[in-house]
Design goal:
The protein has helices at 5-13, 15-51, 87-94, 128-134, 156-162, 198-205, 225-235, 245-287, 289-297, 302-338, 351-377, 381-387, and strands spanning 57-61, 64-70, 73-80, 85-86, 103-116, 119-126, 140-143, 151-154, 169-172, 175-183, 194-197, 210-211, 213-218, 239-243. The protein is α+β, with helices and mostly antiparallel strands.
Length: 388
Amino acid sequence: MNIFTIPLRNLRRKSARTVLMILVFSIGVASVTALIELSKAVGESLEKKLAAYGANILIVPKTETLSVGYGGLMLGDVSYDVKYLQEDAVTAAVRSIHHKDRISAVAPKFAVFTRVGGTPVGVIGVDFKEELAIKSFWSAAAGSLPKAPDALLAGSEAATRLGLAPGATVVVEGRTFTVAGVLAATGGEDDKVLFADLHTLQQAVGKENRVHFVEVAALCAGCPIDEITAQIAAKLPGTDIKAMQQVVRQRMMTVNFVKQLALAVSGVILITACVMIGLSVFSSVNERKNEIGLLRAVGFSKTTVFVLMNLEGLLLGCVAAVIGYCAGFAASFRFFGLLDLGDVAPPVFDPVQFAVIFAAVSGLSLLASLPPSLAAARIEPSQALVML
């Protein structure tokens, strides 16, 4: 018999209580593990869905402005030397930054102002595939979303003002476009303009490969938006990169709330499990005062008794950590199906995460064992004689 076999024999002797304590602690660890996996998946899924409701980075060419005034009357700012962006160069640059895996969509825009039936209206050339990646909330109130190069999508207000319906034709810079559908009301600027295929509109105007600005949607869960904008700026000198900080902050607050809620619940579960471990060791100390007194009488020091009682708590924690992590990891697959998280990759075993959870649970079990272990170390040999 040695210092390591004593705790094992005691746990085996009280097998029913040991199994119950391991079960309680394992449930806590399993819950924490499943919550961690789910919070990561829900955060990623939520960020992808939020990114589909608009861009958070705007790339525009640098322009020179001149403040005009005369006789004390300010006439406003006038832009001159207006430049274009090269579509292919900008797209390639954004897709090649270090955080390129965080870029979900790059949507270039080309704007033309024209008249339809004498009424002025803006026509925006877009890459519909990229645009729908940013604005997945788009839907057609009438007709369908454009698929052909010469098809056009009318905003709800623009369609009403211009009297447009699916099948109507619009001439822009000598090119005839057919209205494929009318966009359902969005409550924003999209309702007031017409949307055409980017490359078709560029050809009609004779401005191939040129765009006025580019919108970028970045998945910002776990990556700083400032770094992404800095990397894009380094790739595209001569442009202004604007991060829509309010949009980013709102998205990050939503994602962080989910993760912080999971951490808070996990903390409560672990604290409850630690209290159970502490109560178990306290109960063991009270039941074994006579035995502990005999150990002190035969030469065991206070430090040795303290270590013995801590080892019991540590063993319970280690076993519960392994069982709980495996159970929680397996349960997370089931929860993925229940929560319909098909757009997120299933959890993958992470040895670093397992090591962190194992160390944390073991440390907490040791911490929970400290008060009863100190009480056990204070038991004097004379108490064994009194109880005999």
